[in-house]
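Prompt: May I have another protein with tokenized structure?
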Amino acid sequence: MWQARIVAAVALALVALPAVAQESGDRFAGHDLAVRWCSSCHLVDPGQQRQGSDAVPTFAAIAAMKSTTEASLKVFLATPHARMPDYTLSRDDIADVSAYILSLRK
């Protein structure tokens, strides 16, 4: 009986593993997406020469906020905001941009 529980636990862990890895996002794809969609207003890359607006935070500043987590970024990016263009990001896009922003944390 205990063997069946171990097999079930291992099987469950193996099934859940790809989902966890998938959720973390691809920071390189997130960088590309941020440059394409966000750089007209935000400074998204430390090497970027200019920012579209001084009234918005840089991605590095967002990353440095104590309140910035993977979960908070996913909620923020999935919610429409009056001051931001109405981009419809997929779950993968949100995970990728979140991973990129978090990669800027020092």
The chain has one domain: 25-103.
